[in-house]
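User: Please go through the entry that follows and flag anything odd:
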Amino acid sequence: MAFFEGNEMTGGYGNGPDIINSCSVKVERGEIVSILGPNGAGKSTAMKAMLGLINLKSGIVKINGKDITKLSPQDRVKEGISFVPQTKNVFAGMTVEENLEMGAYLREDDYKKIITEIYELFPILRKKKNQLVGELSGGQRQQVALGRALMIKPTVLMLDEPTAGVSPIVMDELFDHILKVKKTNVAILMVEQNAKQALSISDRGYVLVTGENRYAGTGSELLNDPRVRSSFLGG
């Protein structure tokens, strides 16, 4: 039994067709797992199903052995799951520190110590703490989004296309930061278009095709699988 898992998930949006079919995804604490596949494969839908943003027709979602299939997204957050969406993941009109404070909305204790830990993880944010997030670079904004998600001290961090729209240099930088977060014993589940780079830092990965699990393995196994290479990694 994995720490966080979606088993045999089938479902879609509203009364529409199923986007994922008997899809299973599992991640342990201190592990990075990537969900990969072509556009329209159901990658983000699988992640959103585990967060409770779509209703499953069948399947079970569990965290630390607890069935959370019927819980609302808000209650799943209370169970320790944090989500960074691809877009609209920061408050551009607020400062860096105000964004981090917004991430502490569930905390009843003094969150200043956690902000200090976030600054240690992302040093640039300390330098920019009084700057409006809308004035930051794309890579710095993503660090704010990551930092804000970590304010609840999650056990699971879900990232939807964390490197979308950033340069290759910034992408490498962001992946370095994600590796740092992994060392804090968080289970990291990531949907990513940059498949090669994602697999190079992932402990394991899943390749979805038309909403179904097509391939699964360690990051290096998938990188070296000729079927995966020819279909999804450009040769």
